[in-house]
């Protein structure tokens, strides 16, 4: 199967999955079978595209040309390939988990949930494979609007309020900052196409580069750089599979993917290093990393603690991009995979605890490790990865990021990474300690439904397997960083 055909399939599979789910709305077993088949098929298509990339192929596909010389087009490159692999792999895990969670909690509007989830994956694939800034913007916005019904899934007052915050921040940021940045870049560079090494060198005045970079970073508010982060903890009112989508599969990854993509293929590492245009971003990202970790310390609600953890972890990727060194940027790209598999494990565990024990607070988790041993074992692996300890993939990505900070001579970045690592341990390890060291309280219960437990066990083991066998994400990250015109 040719590269362009595979690219088209990467869009058609989630789109037809959404249609199939809707057609079988009255038959839950078939509806969920379609979801699982769609997720598995997309993963297979993504693996075939990745095989082509590792062989040196770079397939392209023009979707439409609304204006002469301005095309909506797809093109595969290593960073987008990494993002697509993470999203398609985790869609399988999330689909299996969702069956146990949604049925176990007797959630309403399950068909709409699966439809919107598939559309979100359609948008994610388009975003990952975007050939130019205009295509990226189109799919970035589609991702926002396709996930809004998921954030407001419960349709109660809290969910509707959270949805307003979600749309207000994300849409306002993209319209006020991201779209103008894209248009200014096109005018200055004479093209909207991404190019390894960047397209802006010698095309804009030196004073404008940090301003334009700021428009891109804050315009991509899905990266949750402070102060445009409040949508993320607000969205925790959604069901846990939605939280997993927001934090691990697609949404926040879309934000940091845009930041890395712009740094590598719009500005270019050499240009940023030569001009110092990203120096200011080091301080903003470092503040986000540390401040979010401090706030997480004081959150008793488990999902909100994990939400602020995500803000800090995203800050690592932005910080790595701001340092503009090959090592740090490689670590930032690798952290897309590391954070994805680690954070989805933590949210899966939180949802399993809610389903089996109806507990949502950290202070309610005494002794739960003895009642839910599989869930808490996976949670512990996720915790180790978030802190950055071996034998988990979080150690590898953090190793490259701190190495890049040292090579860049940035004491601020080194201090932020070290301080946040300590803070990560302080707000995550007490959860594990409570689960195992304190006596259990409340009514007896066991594990959540088996699909949820199977999914979280798989992703928990995945944090270790990626540490032991990191070749695929590492090579894609390396190729993305080392690509030159």
From TrEMBL:
Subcellular location: Cell membrane; Membrane
Main location: membrane
Entry coiled-coil feature ranges: none
Domain NADH:quinone oxidoreductase/Mrp antiporter transmembrane residue range list: 130-423
Keyword terms: Cell membrane, Membrane, Transmembrane, Transmembrane helix
Pfam families associated with the record: Proton_antipo_M
InterPro entries per record: CPA3_Na-H_Antiporter_D, ND/Mrp_TM
Membrane-crossing segments per the record: 6-26, 33-50, 70-92, 112-130, 136-153, 165-192, 204-225, 237-260, 280-299, 306-327, 333-354, 374-393, 399-429, 450-469
Membrane topology category: Multi-pass membrane protein
GO cellular component: plasma membrane
Protein family (similarity comment): Belongs to the CPA3 antiporters (TC 2.A.63) subunit D family.
Protein name: Multicomponent Na+:H+ antiporter subunit D
Provenance organism: Prosthecomicrobium pneumaticum
């Amino acid at each position: 199967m040719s590269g362009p055909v595979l690219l088209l399939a990467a869009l058609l599979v989630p789109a037809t999955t959404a249609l199939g789910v809707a057609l079988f709305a009255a038959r839950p077993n078939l509806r969920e079978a379609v979801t699982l088949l769609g997720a598995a098929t997309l993963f297979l298509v993504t693996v075939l595209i990745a095989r082509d990339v590792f062989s040196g192929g770079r397939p392209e596909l023009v979707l439409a040309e609304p204006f002469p010389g301005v095309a909506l087009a797809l093109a595969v490159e290593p960073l987008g390939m990494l993002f697509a692999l993470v999203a398609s792999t985790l869609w399988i895990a999330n689909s299996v988990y969702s069956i146990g969670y949604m049925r176990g909690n007797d959630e309403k509007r399950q068909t709409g949930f699966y439809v919107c989830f598939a559309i979100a994956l359609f948008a994610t694939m388009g975003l990952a494979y975007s050939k130019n800034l205009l295509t990226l913007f189109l799919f970035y916005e589609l991702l926002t609007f396709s996930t809004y019904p998921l954030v407001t899934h419960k349709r109660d007052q809290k969910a509707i309020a959270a949805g307003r915050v979600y749309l207000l921040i994300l849409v306002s940021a993209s319209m006020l900052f991201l779209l103008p940045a894209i248009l200014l870049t096109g005018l200055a560079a004479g093209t909207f196409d991404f190019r390894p090494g960047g397209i802006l060198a010698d095309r804009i005045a030196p004073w404008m580069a940090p301003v334009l970079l700021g428009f891109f970073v804050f315009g991509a508010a899905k990266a949750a750089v402070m102060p445009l982060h409040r949508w993320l903890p607000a969205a925790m009112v959604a069901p846990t599979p939605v939280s997993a989508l927001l934090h691990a599969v697609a949404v926040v990854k879309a934000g940091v993917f845009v930041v890395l993509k712009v740094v590598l293929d719009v500005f270019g590492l050499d240009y940023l290093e030569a001009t110092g245009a990203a120096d200011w971003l080091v301080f903003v990202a470092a503040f986000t990393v540390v401040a979010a970790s401090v706030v997480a310390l004081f959150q008793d609600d488990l999902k909100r603690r994990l939400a602020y953890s995500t803000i800090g972890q995203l800050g690592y990727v932005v910080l790595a991009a701001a340092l503009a060194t090959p090592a740090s940027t490689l670590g930032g790209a690798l952290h897309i995979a590391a954070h994805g598999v680690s954070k989805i494990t933590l949210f899966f565990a939180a949802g399993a605890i809610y389903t089996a024990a109806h507990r949502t607070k950290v202070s309610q988790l005494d002794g739960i490790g003895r009642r839910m041993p599989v869930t808490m074992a996976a949670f512990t692996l996720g915790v180790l990865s978030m802190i950055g300890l071996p034998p988990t993939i979080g150690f590898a990505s953090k190793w490259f990021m701190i190495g890049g900070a040292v090579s860049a001579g940035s004491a601020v970045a080194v201090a932020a990474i070290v301080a946040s690592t300590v803070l990560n341990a302080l707000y995550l390890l007490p959860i594990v300690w409570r689960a195992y060291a304190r006596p259990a309280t409340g009514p007896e219960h066991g594990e959540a439904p088996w699909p949820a437990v199977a999914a979280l066990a798989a992703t928990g083991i995945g944090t270790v397997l990626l540490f032991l066998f990191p070749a695929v994400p590492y090579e894609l990250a390396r190729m993305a960083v080392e690509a030159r015109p």
